[in-house]
Amino acid sequence: MCYTAKYLIEKALKRARHYGIAEDIRRYEEELKDFNDLEKASGFSHPKIIIYTNKEPYHPILSQWGLIPHWIRNTAQAHDIWNKTLNARGESIFEKPSFKDAAHSWRCLIPVAGFYEYHHRDNTTIPYYIARQDNEAMLLAGLWSQWINPDNGQSHHTCTIVTTQANELMAHIHNNPKAKEPRMPLILPDGKEEDWLQLKDKDALTSLLIPFPEEHLQAKPYQIKKSSDNPELW
User: Fold this and answer.
1) Beta-strand (E) ranges in the chain?
2) Which of 23, 120, 142, 207 has the fewest C-beta atoms lying within 10 Å of its C-beta?
3) Helix (H) or strand (E) holding 1
4) What is the pLDDT of residue 233?
5) Has UniProt tagged this entry with the keyword Protease (predicted)?
6) 53, 61 in Cβ contact below 8 A?
7) Which phi-psi region, left, alpha or beta, contains residue 135 (left: φ > 0; alpha: ψ -120 to 50)?
8) Checking DSSP bridges between strand 124-132 and strand 114-121, what pairing results, if any?
9) Which residue has the higher pLDDT, 29 or 53?
10) How much is the pLDDT for 16?
11) Cβ of 197: how many Cβ atoms within 10 Å?
12) Residue 204's pLDDT is what?
């Protein structure tokens, strides 16, 4: 799974700077000027993170981690669901009510510097930080949704990280005895990012659910301090 990640503004903006035009990039940087690097963003605190949607594939926007489906009826239901939608199991996104509409129509890329996972050993947990071997940004497959709160009319942009089966490295690290099986975020290989955003065919999209090669990842034990960040949505 993936519940804690590292977000760096410079890595997140690299896609926009590579594909965008100078005038747009300056506008994006202005829009995101108040975004601070997040060394260890916990999904359970629902931070706003940078994503690229299939509707505007080179425009970085802020989205709150924890997907709220568009059909949620009120604030109480939203609060009840969004801790359960930090991750979306890739193999079932086209069937699960919370994700199927987004899987068909609202996919996104989530650029992270890396993510954290816990290894269980002798009644202790050891946090590991996982990043690309080349230290480039990981582009995680994601889903997004725009929810209008009927209670107050406010619009909320939210997202989730898609997961897949773990590769051998992540299976060793993600050995939680309570988990049904080891998982990892769906890291899109170079050249497959646009496929995730633009493909329409379900089978073609499902074919992208492949664990990222372990030889292209690095993992090291990491000491994570407790975060005091707890942003509020409402």
Assistant:
1) 4-7, 38-42, 48-53, 61-65, 87-89, 107-112, 114-121, 124-132, 138-148, 155-165, 183-185, 217-221
2) 23
3) none
4) 42
5) yes
6) yes
7) left
8) antiparallel
9) 53
10) 94
11) 17
12) 97
DSSP labels, 196-223: HHH---HHHHHTT--PPPGGGEEEEE--
Please enumerate in sequence order all residues whose Cβ is within 8 A of that of 16, keeping only pairs 6 or more positions apart, or say none. Answer: 24, 25, 28, 52, 58, 59, 60
Average pLDDT on 190-197 reads 97
Residue that the structure tokens 């969004």 belong to: 82
Residue 225: per-residue pLDDT: 54
For residue 87, list its beta bridge partners.
161
What string of DSSP letters covers 14-38?
Answer: HHHHHHS-HHHHHHHHHHTTT---E
Q: Which two tokens mark 107?
A: 């996919």
Q: How far apart are CA 128 and CA 234, in angstroms?
A: 32
H-run or E-run covering 173: helix 168-173
pLDDT class for 97, splitting at 50, 70, 90? very high
CB 35 within 8 A of CB 9: yes
CA–CA separation, 67 vs 110, rounded Å?
Answer: 13
Taking 90 as the threshold, does the pLDDT of residue 82 lie above it? Answer: yes
State how far the Cα of 124 lies from the Cα of 117, in Å rounded to an integer. 13
Structure tokens at 23: 């005038």
Global pTM reads: 0.93
